[in-house]
């Protein structure tokens, strides 16, 4: 068990990548808080995990809402007694050409990814500093390092997470806190499924062409990255023992982006 009795908060864990990370951590012995703006979804995931003999708690947390983040993190610590790992994963996607991007949508996307990362990080660092250690993992993207058309705020936000992780790595070091970023390629989750028809419309392609000519075009093998692939990298980062691995960003993308 690589996370025996550790406590983890995973945001956006009612679905997709976050849900798989929550299950993977719990199977390795962690107590996991499923934090999502979708309370019913968070509770359903937690209930299914508990029924399977794992330990989980579902809570409502809109990561853009300061009071919900503070209350949710306090509830996590009160319920499980400590906080060892934060996975700042909640995210959305909105695609449109830059010259027609609505300002409100730009602001909404940056708020979920960047305000959310800041607010959850700040709330998590306090118990981690008190304990003298912890790990923060940000869900970046290949778009933390590379750009694509139609995704201006997403690319901007995902690049920004690398900067935040580096600051957390520097400030957190004295307290035993590490911070790293996972940068996945395309993973077949609801977030991606919603984009396929939108990109097909905006780029004048068929849905199949969006998958083969846009999403997987530059991979080495034409394969989607899976939620399990990303969860294994999260487990590796969460269970790494020392400050040797901090301030880094790790790309998991079937070779779409190579450093
Ligand atoms: P998903 O849509 O399956 O899950 C996202 C979850 O985040 C949902 O449960 C949703 O309710 C929650 N959420 C959204 N806004 C929230 C908010 N304001 N507060 C709290 N929860 C909120 O998507 P996913 O593909 O699993 O994405 C998870 C993360 O992975 C995102 O940050 C995304 O940008 C990133 N990512 C996804 C891919 C991909 O191809 N799917 C690739 C790289 C990075």
Describe the structure concisely for a colleague.
The protein is an alpha/beta fold.
What does this protein structure show overall?
The protein is an alpha/beta fold and 259 residues long. It has 2 domains: 7-186 and 226-252, NAD(P)-binding Rossmann-like Domain (Rossmann fold); 188-224, no CATH class. The protein contains 8 helices and 7 strands. It has a 7-stranded parallel β-sheet, sandwiched between helices. α1 (16-27) packs across α8, α4 runs parallel beside α5 and α6 crosses α7 (207-215). It is globular and about 55 Å long. Bound molecules: nicotinamide-adenine-dinucleotide (NAD). Nicotinamide-adenine-dinucleotide binds at residues 11-12, 14-18, 36-38, 41, 61-64, 89-92, 112, 116, 139, 141, 184, 186-187, 189-192. Nicotinamide-adenine-dinucleotide is lined by residues 11-12, 14-18, 36-38, 41, 61-64, 89-92, 112, 116, 139, 141, 184, 186-187, 189-192.
């Amino acid at each position: 068990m690589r996370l025996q009795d550790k406590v983890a908060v995973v945001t956006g864990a009612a679905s997709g990548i976050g849900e798989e990370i929550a299950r993977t951590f719990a199977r390795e012995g962690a107590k996991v808080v499923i934090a999502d703006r979708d309370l019913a979804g968070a509770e359903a995931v937690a209930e299914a995990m508990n029924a399977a003999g794992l330990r989980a708690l579902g809570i409502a947390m809109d990561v853009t809402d300061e009071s919900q983040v503070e209350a949710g993190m306090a509830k996590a610590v009160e319920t499980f007694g400590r906080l060892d790992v934060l996975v700042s994963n909640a995210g959305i996607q909105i695609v449109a050409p830059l010259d027609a991007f609505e300002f409100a949508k730009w602001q909404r996307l940056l708020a979920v990814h960047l305000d959310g990362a800041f607010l959850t990080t700040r709330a998590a660092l306090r118990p981690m500093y008190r304990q003298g250690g912890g790990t923060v993992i940000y869900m970046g993207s290949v778009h933390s390092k590379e750009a694509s058309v139609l995704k201006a705020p997403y690319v901007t936000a995902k690049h920004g997470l690398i900067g935040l992780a580096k600051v957390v790595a520097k400030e957190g070091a004295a307290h035993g806190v590490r911070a790293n970023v996972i940068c996945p390629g395309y993973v077949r989750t609801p977030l991606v499924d919603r984009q396929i028809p939108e990109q097909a419309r905006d780029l004048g392609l068929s849905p199949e062409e969006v998958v083969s000519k846009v999403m997987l075009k530059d991979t080495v093998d034409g394969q989607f990255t899976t939620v399990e692939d990303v969860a294994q990298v999260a487990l590796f980062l969460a269970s790494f023992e020392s400050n040797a691995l901090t301030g880094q960003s790790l790309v998991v993308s079937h070779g779409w982006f190579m450093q």
